[in-house]
Amino acid sequence: MISKSQLKVKRIFDVVVVILFLPLLIFPIILLVLIATIDTKKWGVYSQLRVGQYGKLFRIYKIRTLVDGDHQLGQLESSATSIGKFLRQTKLNELPQLYNVLIGDMSFVGPRPDLQGFADELTDDDRIILKVKPGITGPATLKYRDEEQRLKLQNDPEHYNRTIIWVDKVKINKKYVQNYSFYLDLRLILKSILNK
Fold first, then answer.
1. I need a surface site. Which of 36, 39, 92, 106 has the fewest CB within 10 A?
2. Which residues cross the membrane (predicted)?
3. Taking the CB of residue 122, how many other CB atoms lie within 10 A of it?
4. How far is CA 182 from CA 6, 11, 110, 122, 139, in A?
């Protein structure tokens, strides 16, 4: 089980890494925001409320990739611009979340932050997942990196997501918190970078 001291070390690591890399990435992020603004004809930063540590809501930031409209689960990629598809596939649209990590809403590694109606409704020992900050990457994120493609193949993506994918993600994220180690975080970051 992750301890208070491990949570502190995890936070220190997050802040140090963001401070080291943000100066190098700030110009590419600004450039991507400008490109997305021109591409989608709306402000290039997208924000949305998500469920964070201890069930507290926070605002997540991403590079905008979708055009206006009603975005259905399993059809997000078809709502994305051609540049937006590239940003989503390469995960470059997630770069503004470095700000979320810096201010303490997120961590580099942890369960992906969910919309209301999922993590905030966890019960009993499943709520252990809420002990940690949501992450840019994590074990469930890596397993379901092709989640949009999987959902696109389903007749009822919403039902499949709630009954199959979400249930499995809860199991994976519980195991992550219960068996946490700093070394595990480093491995998951490396896997994410190498896309393996």
1. 92
2. 12-38
3. 18
4. 8, 11, 12, 25, 14
Give the β-pairing of 107-109 and 57-63: unpaired
Question: The whole model's pTM is what?
Answer: 0.90
Q: 105, 133 in Cβ contact below 8 A? A: yes
Q: Report the relative pairing of strands 57-63 and 135-137 from DSSP bridges.
A: unpaired
- 11-51 pLDDT, tens digit per residue, is 999 999 999 999 999 999 999 999 999 999 999 999 999 99
Q: Which stretch of DSSP H or E encloses residue 166? A: helix 166-178
Residue 146 has pLDDT above 80, yes or no: yes
**pLDDT tier at 70 (50, 70, 90 boundaries)?**
very low
CA–CA distances in Å: residue 90 to residues 70, 73, 95, 138, 192: 24, 20, 11, 16, 11
Q: Cα(100)–Cα(134) distance, rounded to whole angstroms?
A: 10
Say whether 90 sits in a helix, a strand or coil: helix
Number of domains in the chain: 1
Tell me: pLDDT of 106 over 70: yes
